[in-house]
Amino acid sequence: MIDKIEAILSEVEELKASGSDELEVLRLKYLSKKGIIPSLMETFRTIPAEQKREVGVRINELKQKAADKFNELKEQFESSDAGDLNIDLTRTAYPVALGTRHPISIVKEEINDIFKRLGFSIEEGPEVEDDWHVFSSLNFADDHPARDMQDTFFIQNDPQILLRTHTSSVQTRVMENAQPPIRIICPGRVYRNEAISYRAHCFFHQVEALYIDKDVSFADLKQALLFFAREMFGEETKIRLRPSYFPFTEPSAEMDISCNICGGGGCPFCKHTGWVEILGCGMVDPNVLENCGIDSKTYTGYALGMGIERITNLKYQVKDLRLFSENDIRFLEQFKSAY
Ligand code: DAH
Known about the structure:
Strand content: 15-25%
CATH class of the largest domain: Alpha Beta
Largest sheet: 7 strands, mixed
Strand order of the largest sheet: 1-5-6-10-9-8-7
CATH superfamily of the largest domain: Bira Bifunctional Protein, Domain 2
Number of strands: 10
Number of helices: 11
Bound molecules: 3,4-dihydroxyphenylalanine
Number of domains: 2
Shape: elongated
């Protein structure tokens, strides 16, 4: 019996396998239920009692060595399988498509960054607002058409609660709670009761800027506008201001920039005028300052507001506004940016 065990032991020690399939065949031959080593155990039961001790020790030794040998061979294959295929075990199992930021977010961040460089800080306000913050505090007359159901979404038909139609409402919220100097930009979503088409949507995004301090003048406004236009659309960009009307600013203006598509020479985009309108602005009406608890004899200020979709349109020439809210990956994937 001992001789037989010794013979099997030296066989096991010499075992070699060239792959995991071959190793499995050997494992079945030696270690499976009906394999050589378990069947030795059967024979062990039949041997005379006085031999049992010595033979038992030898069989255990064989079992242990065989188990060690198989583990050793197995490990060899595992490490060399990975090595042969040159697999990077830290890689994910599937290719991961990197997402892109939404073009509106990209442009919003860019606008924020430009104004931050001028010392503005970001403020946000609620989208569900009251009449005071959206209209009354901003000097809208009671019969102003913007208060009409045609333009504004009211909540549960209550004329006092509505979805803000512009981010100018955040001006009031900030001025009510702080004294000048105030230098803020307010990005956010706004809502209007418009029929959806390629050029209008029932929601879109705006950025509002407000600067209130002693001695703020229209010249300060113009300088900030020129800085913004050049940073956003390039050094060569020119601006022009046209007189306009907004209830909350006096005087008011609309700003055009030289068309960044044709450089001002005239093209279908700028309707051959060389200019495109990008924002509204003006000096904050003294009534608005007083409505918000700011002394209009001591302080003056300017405000401006622009549509982010409009700026995005100009930067990326997206002709249909609806693309911004359809979440079509083929559209969104085209916007790779550092922002
Ligand atoms: N709130 C205006 C709008 O929604 C935009 C605007 C115009 C904002 C002039 C201003 C401003 O702050 O001074 O059309």
